[in-house]
């Protein structure tokens, strides 16, 4: 699986359409490896159509790992997308700087 894109400005990790418990183990391995190898990374959630709480836990784990390693990590999460909706519904909007309404 190759969910990454790199250019001179930024490295991007594209989440797939499904980010649920079935996909998270593989995604976690790939994402945490990318965090270790990149000085800065953007996680792009624009393609996500289905996500469950294990997907949100993956994003939180990536955020914590980046903080521990002193790495820059940012998120590209559309306000009206599945990722933002679940984050808001689970009461975690503050952790991702989501300020819109559900």
> For the record, what is the CATH homologous superfamily label?
STAS domain
Q: Name the strands of the widest sheet in spatial order.
A: 1-2-4-6
Low-confidence stretches: none
Amino-to-carboxy terminus distance? 31 Å
Question: Could you characterize the architecture of this molecule?
Answer:
This protein has 102 residues and is α/β, with parallel strands linked by helices. The protein has a single domain, classed as Transcription Regulator spoIIAA, CATH 3.30.750. It has three helices and six strands; from the N terminus they run βββαββαβα. It has helices spanning 21-37, 53-69, 82-89, and strands at 4-6, 11-14, 18-19, 40-44, 50-51, 72-76. A four-stranded mixed β-sheet has the order 1-2-4-6, with helices on one face. It has a two-stranded parallel sheet with strand order 3-5. α1 (21-37) runs parallel beside α2. The N and C termini lie far apart (31 Å). The model has no long low-confidence stretch (mean pLDDT 87).
Fold topology:
Blueprint: E1 4-6, E2 11-14, E3 18-19, H1 21-37, E4 40-44, E5 50-51, H2 53-69, E6 72-76, H3 82-89
Helix pairs in contact: 1-2
């Amino acid at each position: 699986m190759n969910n990454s894109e790199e250019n001179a400005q930024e490295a991007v990790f594209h989440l797939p359409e499904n980010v649920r418990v079935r996909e998270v183990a593989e995604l976690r391995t790939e994402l945490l490896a990318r965090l270790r190898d990149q000085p800065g990374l953007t996680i792009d959630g624009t393609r996500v159509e289905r996500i469950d709480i294990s997907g949100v836990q993956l994003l939180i784990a990536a955020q914590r790992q980046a903080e521990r390693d002193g790495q820059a990590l940012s998120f590209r999460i559309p306000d009206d997308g599945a990722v933002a909706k679940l984050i808001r519904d689970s009461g975690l909007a503050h952790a991702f700087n989501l300020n819109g309404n559900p």
